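Lecture 7, part 2: worked example. A protein chain together with magnesium ion.
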Amino acid sequence: MQRNDHSPDFHHLLSFDFDGTLHYPGDDPAVSRAFFSQLIRIRRDYRAAWGINTGRSLEHLLEGMEENRFPVDPDFIVAREREIYFAQPDGSWSQDAEWNARCEREISTLFQKCAPFLAEIRALIEERTGAQWIEMPGEPAGLIARTDEEMDWIVSEILPRVPQGSSLGWQRSTIYLRFGDRDFQKGSALAHIARAWQIPRSHVFAIGDSHNDMEMLTLDVAAMIASPRNAVRDIHEHVRQQGGFACTQAHSHGVAEALAHFFPETPSR
Ligand SMILES: [Mg+2]
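Predicted complex, written out as structure tokens:
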């Protein structure tokens, strides 16, 4: 596997959601080779750094990349929609210690303050739905619903109950929901990486298919935004309203299409 040298001399930044965007198990292969061809070209011709911005934990994402034999490693990973990791020359991953520690500290304080709210939501979903409450190290409060419709109902019940003035938020991807701090999500993590590498918003690309991609698919974070054809309606509308690119193809075929749209082949090469 080719390793990146983590050079700070990047001119562009590419951020991809994983499940349902880059990766779809119903496709064969689950990540299209057309995507990798575009990626390799753009990394070379546009000096682009690339990363996966996902709800998965780091371990779960690395498993997914291994299964799909990625020919080139990402330069960065955002895991659990907020933890930042950078690729090292030896193939290992180092975390952005300052960002990750701040994120964990703020969420822990916030959850202590919001304990009654979280207990109320847990009781509600255990009484009224078949959804499962998740609470474990690294995953302090989350839910898995049985269906999208059940999660729609849960979100409609959570909304009016959020404590006033609180920065408590949540990230939803289909039947999964993770509570957290509104200030730490895919968008703020991506903006943080762009600042660290001094890449302007106009040179940042992001693509995603679900509600938890909303914050990175905004012009404040990335000037080049796209959604694959299979994206949920809210995301498609959000991307369209901002003049982004709505792909005609699904999953990683859509990703390849969006990359070709924003990063044309340079005539000099
Ligand atoms: Mg997704």
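Residues 17, 19-21, 173, 208-210 surround magnesium ion (CB under 6 Å). The chain has two domains: 12-81+185-262, 100-181. Keep this in mind for problem set question 3.
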